[in-house]
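re: that chain from earlier
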Amino acid sequence: ALELIDFKNALEQFQNLVEKMIIRKTKESSGLYSKDDDEIDYDKFSTTTRTLFGPAVKDQNIQAFFRKIMSNPDERPEWLEIFGCFTGESEGMSSLLKENTVLLVSEKQQITHSVVKRKDVIKGIVKVPLLHLTVTASQRGVLTVFSKQRQSLFSYYFYFHQEPAWTTGCDFLPNLKYVAAVTESSVILWDYKSKDSKSNGFVIKPMKNCLLCVCTVTMADDLPKDTILMGDDKGYVYLLTITSDDFIMKQSKAEKESQFKVLDSESFDIPKRKLHDDWVGKVKYFSALKRFGSCSTDSNKSIVLDEIKRLEDHLPVMEFSVPKGVNAFTYCGKAKVIVTGG
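^ sequence. v structure.
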């Protein structure tokens, strides 16, 4: 209880310190304040913060907090940012007491293998809990599978696709055990388990519109096939079913040994339906609802939630309007709600 009172005291003093800095910075910006001996510079801020909280604060967090206040005093940072995020060990409370932590989050592990180069960004990340895998896709075409082993080590496999278009999303095909990724003009299917994982896979092309997102439709069967949903820049949502036979019957020879085998998109039956009047930002399938969802920045048809068969007919769909559209959405089964973010 005494420690709690002391912390509340220290926190109150810290917030007063921040308030003084914001007032002085605001006055200085408007030309109403001239520097004097009472000015709070970085050294004074750092020393005072350390006196109040001791070893619970780190240099980088103090610097970041100070920069935020100085650069934009109107958008004041939350006080908890001064502590950053601490990593808790799993040996019990005795090990936690070694550090004077204020905030505690679950233990995390950083993957140090640098497979994504500079000027490249991750465009998709998918967890596959049953296989303990994490799949990522970078904008410039690096597909990566991280495999957890021995509880702490990560092995990884990666493939750099040679399509000229940027990658826009990825997912995992649970029955075929392939990684699926979409680029602006093609669908990539990668057999990451192959000994020659950098050249064993397929590319379905050409796709007429620019593909922006992809997700797997999870079914309760073990048939050698998988279905994916895709969204494009014209408001269309596509339904593509891939079987193991497609890899044998529809493939053509690769131009080079290092390239994936090409599958002609015209040889597939790919139902599609225009559900939005703007880009499709995200598609997702909810097994619990047996429905798919798609969202767009379209203010009139912002989010659609309906059965898969609606993509193959022209019956009305369940759609909702949100001002300025929807960028992301998810479903919570326990609360039975759909949550959207605009």
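The helical segments are 2-29, 42-53, 59-71, 93-96, 246-249.
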